[in-house]
Amino acid sequence: MRTTPFTLAVVMALAWGSRATRAEPIYESADLGWTGGGSGPGVSTTQFIGSRFHVDQAVEVTGIGGHLGSDGTIFGALVSLDSPTALPSGSPIVSDPLAVTTFDAGLRSRDLVVPLSATLEPGDYALIFGSGWFGATGTGFLPANNVVIPGRSANFWWRRGAWDSVGLTETRVVVDGIFLDVAAGCRRWRGKKARREPQRPTR
Known about the structure:
CATH architecture: Sandwich
Radius of gyration: 21 Å
Order of helices and strands: HEEEEEEEEEEEEEEH
Distance between the termini: 21 Å
Helix content: 10-25%
């Protein structure tokens, strides 16, 4: 079958549209280390672990997670920050985060993402894991055996009654989502009729 410019354009648009509307990591603090362990910096009612990230364009968050484990349920909450180096407001956390979910990661560490829906405008945000709030009653941990991505590991924690960004490295935190301007551009393209190339007359 002969490939025409029209059919090639359609194939490329469909492929691009599939990528544009498929969730992918918009933030990863580290590349995954070995899984199956049972220890690491802890998550409890008195100690939370989080990571800061920045988005340059609007994004629809579809899930949050990382390399972690838990005994019972812990929460994952998205909060907004005032700047790329800011720590969360609240003691220890605001009562109305942008989005929050609770989940049980299992006793042995694994890399997982759980569903969470939120729309983020360009700005600075943090994903926080903890317990004792939002119905979470268990304990958890984030193994410190992952490979830090330069410029990405902006981790912090709540401990000893205050937020602190010192001494927490190599934990893996992940936020999945879809960049909205890319998805909208794809929808606009699909809504237009492609122009067919004029056919040459046959002799």
